[in-house]
Design goal:
single chain, mainly alpha, about 75% helix, globular
C-alpha cells in the first residue's frame, strides 16, 4: 500500500494560496461590495485635495516676497502635509480595522466554529491581516497622484517619495499587526480597541515626549561636560538616531533632515572632533525594527 506524501510548497504556490485565503476573499468581498468603502475613499481624496488647495492658497497671503512664494517651499509643505495625513491613517485607521477582527468573531460566537474548520490558525490570522491591510494600502497608494503636485512645484525628489512610502507601508503592517494581536488577546472589541489605540498613542506621542523630557534633563550636564570625547559624542548621536527610529514621525522628520542637509539616503556623515562618523538614516532601523516587531506579533 503506497503512502501519499505531500511535497513542500514552492514560493509561487504559497503566494497563490495566500491570495486564495477564504478569510481574505470573504472580508474583501463584504467590504468592497458595499458603498462604505468607496464613500470613504472618495471623501478621503476630496479632503486631501481641499487641504492641498488651502495650503496653496494660503502661501501667497503669508509671503513677504513681492514676486510671490517660492514654488519649492510650497511643494515641500504640500508633501509634508500629505505624508502627515497618511501617517495618521496608518497609526489610527489601520489598527481600527484589525482591532475587531478576531474579538468580533468571539462576540458573534463564530470563533469556535472557525477553529473547527480545516483553516489553520496562521491562515486565519494572515487572512484577517491581509483583508485589513489591503484597504489601508489602497488609501495610501491612492494619495500618491496628489503627491505629484509637489513634484510639479519642485522641492521634492523621487527618493523622498520612495522612502516615505516604504516607511508608511512598514508602519501600516506593524500597527495593523498590533491591533490584531490585541484583538486576539481580548474577548471584547471595546477592550481590544482601547489597548490598540493606547499602544499606538504611547508609541507615537508619549514616547517622544518622554524622550524630550529626558533630553532636557540631561542636556545641562552634557553642556557642562567639556571633557566629553568624540567617542562619547558619537555614542550620543547614535543613541538619539536610534531613538528617532522607534517613532514614526521622528523617523520621517530626521530622515528628511539627513537627506536635505547632506543628501544622505542611507548613511549620514557627521564629524566629531575631526573624526568622521557615519550615522544610519533613521528610516533604515525603523523599517527593520517594525518589520521584526510585526513578525514577532504574528508568531505570538
Amino acid at each position: 500500500m503506497t503512502e501519499l506524501t505531500q511535497s513542500p510548497l514552492t514560493k509561487k504556490q504559497r503566494l497563490k494560496n495566500l491570495g486564495r485565503n477564504p478569510v481574505t476573499v470573504k472580508e474583501l468581498r463584504s467590504r468592497m461590495r458595499g458603498r462604505k468603502a468607496f464613500v470613504v475613499l472618495t471623501v478621503y481624496l476630496l479632503v486631501m485635495s481641499l487641504f492641498i488647495l488651502l495650503i496653496y492658497a494660503a502661501f501667497p497671503a503669508g509671503s513677504s516676497d513681492p514676486f510671490g512664494p517660492n514654488a519649492r517651499d510650497v511643494g515641500k509643505v504640500i508633501f509634508a502635509a500629505i505624508v502627515g495625513v497618511q501617517g495618521f491613517l496608518v497609526v489610527f485607521v489601520g489598527p481600527a480595522y484589525t482591532a475587531s477582527a478576531i474579538s468580533g468573531e468571539k462576540e458573534r460566537q463564530t470563533y469556535d466554529l472557525l477553529r473547527t474548520t480545516l483553516l489553520t490558525a496562521k491562515r486565519f490570522v494572515s487572512g484577517k491581516l491581509l483583508s485589513s491591510l489591503a484597504y489601508v494600502f489602497l488609501l495610501i497608494l491612492a494619495a500618491i497622484p496628489l503627491q505629484s503636485i509637489a513634484f510639479l512645484l519642485g522641492g521634492v525628489s523621487f527618493v523622498e517619495l520612495f522612502v516615505s512610502q516604504i516607511v508608511l507601508l512598514v508602519a501600516a503592517v506593524a500597527f495593523a499587526m498590533w491591533g490584531l494581536f490585541c484583538s486576539a488577546s481580548f474577548r471584547s472589541t471595546m477592550a481590544a480597541s482601547v489597548a490598540t489605540f493606547g499602544g499606538a498613542l504611547f508609541v507615537t506621542l508619549i514616547t517622544p515626549m518622554l524622550a524630550g523630557l529626558l533630553l532636557a534633563i540631561i542636556s545641562p550636564f552634557l553642556a557642562l561636560s567639556a571633557t566629553l570625547s568624540w567617542v562619547g559624542e558619537a555614542a550620543l548621536a547614535y543613541t538619539l538616531t536610534l531613538l528617532a527610529a522607534t517613532n514614526l514621525p521622528a523617523a520621517l522628520i530626521t530622515s528628511e533632515f539627513f537627506f536635505l542637509d547632506g543628501g544622505a539616503v542611507f548613511l549620514y556623515e557627521e564629524s566629531f572632533s575631526g573624526r568622521v562618523v557615519y550615522l544610519p538614516s533613521p528610516w533604515l532601523p525603523f523599517a527593520l525594527l517594525y518589520s521584526l516587531l510585526a513578525f514577532f506579533l504574528y508568531l505570538l
